[in-house]
Amino acid sequence: MVAEDDLNRLSESVYQYIATPNDLTAAEVLQTCNSVSLDVRLRFTEVFMHVATIHKLELNTVYELIRRFDFVEQAFIQLLEERIHHQQTSSTQDLPKGISAVIRIQNEAQHIKDSILSIYRSVDEIIVALHNCTDDTESIIQKLIDSGLNKIRIIHYYEKIARAGHSYHQEREQGLGSLAQYYNFCFSHARYSDVLKWDGDMVAFPLLHQILINHNGQDANLIFEGCDIFDEKCSAGPEIRLYPNQVKSFYFDSLYFEVLYSPFPSLAVSQPMYIHMKFAKDQLYLPYLT
pTM score, two decimals? Predict the structure, then answer.
């Protein structure tokens, strides 16, 4: 309850600052940051960007407002500078209408074929980002490509990455890589107007096909969820899975994991769109059968 109260107080002070940016509201943000718990303070950027989304701020405005606070992680400031520079020097308006599915994978041999085949007809390309796989994942994907599924592309990412969860911030401080940097690298390879965040242990329901086709090109985020197998706690809850492939959409690091900033209107699907096979993997499902 204390953490929730602290988050609410921090959100309120940030909201007031963004609505009326001046020395007084900035001082109130600093005072609030100094009075909340460390974990809440470390979520400042996440809170700030959430409020920025509500206000539909342009990246230049976000940059000018947040860099006033010297405790903001320098890597985030540099990320904003890079996105702004990219926005000024390039254009995504010429991207062909379509959907680029991006799948980030580490050892998903058991379900990757079903995952890819379940969305293949719904998208215009599938970018499979392999992260230090030690199982048969790559050979399975290569066989799909060799069989004529030419919408699939393989890329590699080799840096060791911090694990999402309560140790994420600590592991990053110890030198492990950023999830946000990994995600931004993967999604930078997308060639079409919209990007679909997909996982190697997700298998789409047939209904998703028509929803993706209808939504493509709307300049809006699409939120949907999935169904877990076996697990009593749903780890496939609603999140933005499809969003416009534009410079102002990107991932940044928060306290526990990466967070997507996509300042577009969001539409939500009211029913599950995929089966989440995370707890149907050989090494995980046995406890549910005993």
Answer: 0.90
